Amino acid sequence: MPSVASVGQVIAVKAVDENGKPTEWEAVDMPSDEHINDLINTALEAFKNGSY
Fold this sequence. Notes:
Elements (H helix, E strand, L loop, with lengths): L8 E8 L5 E8 L3 H17 L3
Antiparallel strand pairs: 1-2
């Protein structure tokens, strides 16, 4: 039975075929605002320091 997302979850692709078509996926919890802000801050710091 395929994974079904609940409220507060999204579908994440786990595998793709040789053409890039998704072949396997799963329901995962959406990242929190804090997690998203951490990712943004890390990316901005990498661009600022030229370490991307």
